[in-house]
Design goal:
By secondary structure, the chain is α/β, with parallel strands linked by helices. The protein is built from eleven helices and seven strands. It has a domain of 189 residues: Rossmann fold (3-Layer(aba) Sandwich). It is globular and about 55 Å long.
Length: 273
């Protein structure tokens, strides 16, 4: 698991400088935080905070009387988040470079809300949800957003193109990629009152321009980076041609991704599990 964390951290370190330019991530996070219905003064853990699309929205909603702890394994992503926090003059946000699925230095019942915006696919969902259950106060809320299986379309197309080079790439969204799987994961971790809300994200033209880089650098697509430079170049040509063909054939289908927003509650009077 340590090696996996290092691989994931390195992947996001490389993507950090450009990550904040990806439009759909920002809109996705904003909608997620909106659905969380946060209140002023709440203590919130932002797990897998990245460059802080969700963190900034969370901090605005809980206000100066609240507290936000943003945790991520990538130093590069947190460096970008620090810039955003400083620009917003938020003094009630703290950053922690660590594994969000294992935070033994934090006491039980530390938070009122734990949110994970689009990052649970990079973690062990079972370990993460059980740890967040421990960290939540009784009656506290957990929430995560996730892509449906085979979404967004450019990611699925990348994996299809890679198969022509003998690679069977994992769809990292598959494990939580349906309403049923989200419910099962939350119930298994001890949560109750589960709600799963379907939604969509829209990819912009600028998102498509960075589709190769985003998929090439994705942790789940690591085998691609083991190809020779010649084969990487051939894969890129195949992929970008496929994107262009799909854009001409049905732009709406290419640029629409299916997502899920899942929320649940830790039962009152259940301080630990």
């Amino acid at each position: 698991m340590v090696d996996d964390l290092r691989t994931i951290a390195a992947s996001f370190d490389q993507r950090a400088a450009r990550y904040s330019t990806v439009d759909w991530h920002r809109d996705y996070a904003r909608r997620f935080v909106e659905l969380a219905s946060l209140e002023p003064g709440q203590r919130v853990l932002d797990a897998g905070a990245g460059t802080g699309f969700a963190t900034i929205e969370i901090a605005r909603r809980v206000g100066a009387t609240g507290k936000v702890l943003a945790v991520d394994v990538s130093a590069g992503m947190l460096a970008q988040l620090r810039i955003a926090i400083d620009a917003a003059s938020f003094s009630h946000v703290e950053l922690l470079q660590d594994d969000a699925t294992n935070l033994p230095k934090l006491a039980d019942s530390t938070f009122d809300v734990v949110l994970c915006s689009s990052a649970l696919l990079y973690m062990s969902a079972d370990a993460a949800l059980r740890e967040w259950h421990r960290l939540l106060s009784p009656g506290g809320i957990v929430g995560f957003s996730t892509m449906c299986a085979d979404s967004p379309p450019p990611g699925r197309m990348f994996r299809e193109c890679a198969s022509a080079f003998g690679l069977a790439l994992e769809d990292a969204s598959a494990a939580l990629g349906s309403e049923e799987r989200c419910r099962e994961a939350l119930h298994s971790a001890g949560f109750a009152e589960v709600t799963v809300i379907p939604g969509e994200i829209q990819l912009s033209p600028s998102d498509l321009l960075v589709a190769w880089e985003s998929n090439f650098r994705a942790a789940a697509h690591a085998p691609v980076r083991g190809l020779s430079q010649e084969k990487q170049n051939s894969l890129r040509e195949r992929y970008e041609a496929a994107l262009q063909d799909a854009l001409v054939a049905d732009a709406a289908a290419l640029t629409t991704g299916d997502v899920l927003f899942a929320f649940a509650r830790k039962s009152p009077g259940n301080p630990s599990r």
